[in-house]
């Protein structure tokens, strides 16, 4: 879970506070343009050890383990994140014309060049947490995606944010690796609450393929 520093830096922020802000700003969010990563870079991260990003501490974390917003497990979580270099492409199913009903296309999912399937993050929450455009301005090359189905069972938790076709791994809006599936209490504790404590992650750790 990665997010917008304005929402996440509020002292004592919690899920109810964030939802309240979303509802209050729903009109602005609908018309929001995607945020440029250059406008919200993460602060410099002083790596505490020489092998930061090489030693993947995120691989040592099990679902349900307690972590905090200032821990390496949180800040360096994107060492376990993997994203296609360019946005996944939409895959449609064509519904043939039937009677008076015209032929139409139905979006099934998004697919990358390895045939892994992705789904877009919520059009309601992604503008808050990831700087996506509002529902009135969404375009697939400037959206945040979550892995739907990978090529193996070990592939999970990947989240990728793109801006004008480029992967964002440098801003406070970047996509981040999730330790636990949503919705679940583990996801709330390990991913949501830690993000609200600290939305600043070490940049440039996401593996591109």
In brief, what are we looking at here?
The chain has 209 residues and is of the alpha+beta class. The protein is built from six helices and eight strands, in the order H-H-H-H-E-E-E-E-H-E-E-E-H-E.
Describe this entry's structure for a reader.
This protein is an alpha+beta fold and 209 residues long. The protein has 6 helices and 8 strands. Strands 2-3-4-5-6-7 form a 6-stranded antiparallel beta sheet, with no helix packed on it. The radius of gyration is 18 Å and the shape is globular.
Helix and strand arrangement:
Blueprint: H1 5-8, H2 15-24, H3 26-31, H4 72-75, E1 82-83, E2 89-95, E3 104-111, E4 117-120, H5 126-129, E5 144-149, E6 159-163, E7 166-167, H6 185-197, E8 207-208
Parallel strand pairs: 1-8
Antiparallel strand pairs: 2-3, 3-4, 4-5, 5-6, 6-7
Overall body shape? globular
The percentage helix is 10-25%
Strand content: 15-25%
Average pLDDT figure = 85
Instruction: Outline the biggest β-sheet.
Output: 6 strands, antiparallel
Distance between the termini: 20 Å
The helix count comes to 6
Number of strands: 8
Order of helices and strands: HHHHEEEEHEEEHE
> What is the CA-based Rg, rounded?
18 Å
Class by helix and strand content? alpha+beta
Low-confidence stretches: 2-16
Enumerate the strands of the largest sheet in spatial order, edge to edge or round the barrel.
2-3-4-5-6-7
